[in-house]
Specification:
Blueprint: H1 13-26, H2 29-39, H3 47-68, E1 72-76, E2 80-82, E3 86-97, H4 99-103, E4 110-117, E5 120-128, E6 133-138, E7 142-145, E8 148-149, E9 162-165, H5 175-185, E10 191-193, H6 198-206, E11 212-216, H7 220-232, E12 236-238, H8 246-249, E13 251-255, H9 257-268
Parallel strand pairs: 1-3, 9-10, 9-11
Antiparallel strand pairs: 1-2, 3-4, 4-5, 5-6, 6-7, 7-8, 11-13, 12-13
Helix pairs in contact: 1-3, 2-3, 5-9, 6-7
Bound molecules: L-MYO-inositol-1-phosphate (LIP).
């Protein structure tokens, strides 16, 4: 599917600029991913190759977005912060969210771009090129998967809910603390998943596939697009202290409103 094709839904100029930039950046990404699968067994390994793919996607996104909105700034996973003349607008970019999945030839990763106006995320696009799923949302316009409107889950009971999170790993996070959290959460829910791509975890909450997602030690570019996707799909997004500082506090919980309090109580052991 062309990301630009929207037979049934009228998209704004901003979403079309983001969709066009992602479509151009993804040209060759699936080919690179298929190459990675061959590199798994090569002496050199795929590490450097994936870094090249990451940087190539980010460079294309920046070039295309800069062409369309030359005064906006950038906050990027690989190239850092670049101020624009317009200090009120920033594109927030993760060129490959789910890098470890990509590196290991696991077909679950996404290109994710958000637009920040002041302190507000006002538009977000997350594209999974393997499944050809384009999640997008704009403030006040709703959330969509390709051309279909999406909404958070209508399930009411925690014991029916399927949650997704991010686990600690070598050099990242507190395994002992996480084991205690998981020990409190698992007996109360239908299941907990760890898919390795926060941008898609949030997109799946917005689409009602998961009832909730939480993670700490997460980066702004992993979650920026997902924040607006979940909000526009009727869900609530907070930091793990219950505030609105997800990107500053690098923590997030996203779910329908009625799941927030019980989930935060389980996470904090209240
Ligand atoms: C990843 C996130 C994932 C998190 C990883 C990493 P990356 O982003 O999507 O949820 O658990 O630590 O931050 O590094 O693949 O862009």
């Amino acid at each position: 599917m062309s990301l630009l094709s929207s037979r049934f839904v009228t998209r704004s100029a901003t979403i079309n600029v983001m969709a066009r930039s992602i479509e151009k950046a993804c040209k060759g990404l699936v080919r690179d991913f298929n190459e990675v699968e061959h590199l798994q067994v090569s002496q050199k390994g795929p590490g450097d190759f994936v870094s090249t793919a990451d940087l190539r996607v980010e460079k294309t996104l920046r070039m295309e977005l800069e062409k369309a909105r030359p005064t906006y700034g950038f906050i990027m996973e690989e190239s850092g912060i670049i101020e624009g003349e317009d200090r009120d607008h920033y594109w927030i970019i993760d060129p490959i969210d789910g890098t470890s999945n990509f590196l290991h030839g696991i077909p679950h990763f996404a290109v994710t771009v958000a637009l920040k106006r002041g302190r507000d995320i006002v538009a977000g696009c997350t594209y999974d090129p393997i499944k050809d799923e384009f999640f997008w949302a704009e403030k006040g316009m709703g959330a969509f998967l390709n051309d279909r409107r999406i909404r958070v889950s209508t399930r009411k009971n925690l014991n029916e809910s399927l949650l997704v999170t991010g686990f600690p790993f070598a050099g990242h996070g507190d395994p002992e603390e996480f084991k205690e959290i998981l020990g409190r959460v698992m007996p109360k829910v239908a299941g907990v998943r760890r898919f390795g791509a926060a941008a898609l975890d949030l997109a799946y909450v917005a689409a009602g596939r998961f009832e909730g997602y939480w993670e700490s030690g997460i980066s702004p570019w992993d979650i920026a697009a997902g924040i607006i996707l979940v909000k526009e799909a009727g869900g609530h997004v907070r930091d793990l202290e219950g505030g609105h500082e997800m990107m500053d506090r690098k923590s997030i919980i996203a779910a329908p409103e009625h799941f927030h309090a019980p989930l935060l109580d389980l996470i904090h052991g209240r």
